[in-house]
């Protein structure tokens, strides 16, 4: 990938990347956030500190936070009306602490047509 292609991928001007590569400027926090948002498998420690491996373990699916290890929950969305299939307003990955003491009691899915569904 060229510097121009990389800039387009993360949504910054090509000159921004050019200036960083030429050591005229240093990367901003916003630039790091854009890189990490676009390339989800990049290890944050590697990018910011130069330590560890370049890629996150398990392709970036396993996350750690201040609240302990996190694991993604698979939350399927059922299609109930075959004549007018509905799609959820947004796709989200839901995380729950691995050693959670609380259990999910209800999930509400809101649809773009103004209806909702409880699970």
Layout of helices and strands:
Elements (H helix, E strand, L loop, with lengths): L2 H8 L3 H8 L7 H10 L5 H6 L13 E3 L2 E6 L20 E4 L10 E3 L5 E3 L1
Antiparallel strand pairs: 1-2, 2-3, 4-5
Helix pairs in contact: 1-2
Provide a short characterization of the protein structure.
This protein is α+β, with helices and mostly antiparallel strands.
Find the structural class using helix and strand composition.
alpha+beta
Cα gyration radius (Å): 20 Å
Task: Estimate what percentage of residues fall within beta strands.
Answer: 15-25%
Overall 3D form: elongated
- Please tally the helical runs, counting DSSP H or I stretches of 4 or more residues: 4
Number of domains: 2
- The end-to-end distance, rounded to whole angstroms, is 44 Å
> Helix content range of the residues, please?
25-40%
Mean pLDDT: 75
Spatial order of strands in the largest sheet: 1-2-3
Q: Can you count the beta strands?
A: 5
Low-confidence stretches: none
Largest sheet report: 3 strands, antiparallel
The secondary-structure element order is HHHHEEEEE
């Amino acid at each position: 990938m060229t510097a121009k292609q990389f800039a387009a991928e993360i949504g910054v001007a090509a000159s921004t990347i050019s200036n960083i590569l030429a050591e005229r400027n240093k990367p901003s926090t916003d630039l790091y956030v854009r890189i990490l948002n676009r390339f989800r498998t990049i290890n944050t420690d590697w990018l910011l500190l130069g330590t560890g491996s370049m890629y996150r373990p398990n392709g970036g699916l396993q996350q750690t936070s201040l609240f302990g290890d996190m694991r993604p929950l698979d939350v399927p969305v059922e299609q109930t009306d075959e004549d007018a299939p509905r799609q959820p307003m947004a796709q989200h990955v839901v995380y729950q602490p691995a050693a959670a003491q609380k259990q999910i009691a209800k999930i509400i899915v809101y649809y773009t047509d103004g209806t909702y569904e409880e699970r």
